[in-house]
Amino acid sequence: MTLSVILITKNEAANIRACLESVAWADEIVVVDSGSTDGTVEIAREFTGKVYVHSDWPGFGPQKNRSLDNATGDWILSLDADERIPPELRAEIEAVLAAPIAEGYFIPRLSQFCGYFVHHSGWRPDYVLRLFRRSKARFSESRVHESVICNGKTAKLKQSILHYSYLNRDDVERKVQHYSAAAAQQMFEAGKRAGLAKAVISGSWAFIRTYLLRLGVLDGAAGWNIAVMNARTTWLKYRRLAQLNAERN
Question: pTM for this structure?
């Protein structure tokens, strides 16, 4: 069984080398970039000849399907540039591919927030479907919060992907702005509506759910900051949706 690792990137020079080094053992690496200006493409080409650059941004789901369409392996391992495959997970993946019992595998993630590995706040074990037979799965067409649609049996692995998701405050703010804008656009295109009250209530609930119900309080300062981040992202998402609705009217 051959394995293709697929990634989508934009301005990931701070992450991409460590990510690709962690999967250099794979049979094939495919990188689809959306116009990086920081050296991401040049670094990626040190590891693979299959680097494709597109000037447009169709959304996360369609972009990941572009990477999938350029892969040739029997199996796919989908990663983000801020993720790493530790040796223990590599060994588990290789064992699974030697004798697969499913068409897709969920892998837990251990994520870091500004230098702290998070064990609560809704971030753990955070199973994501990332390993799958190429002929049996495809990404949804969602602009944001895309998912793998697998046609067949799935199972879970034990070892974790290491996820260096938020490096510092600037990185947090950049992602808050990006994800809230993409989510608002997706909801707008689906015909959804929202007002200021919806933004306030949803943002407040996002904080309570993260910090209390999902035990973010046990993550200390990181848990508080994650709850604030989730509240702000949710608030901005619905506020921007309200603005889009007002502009259409």
Answer: 0.87
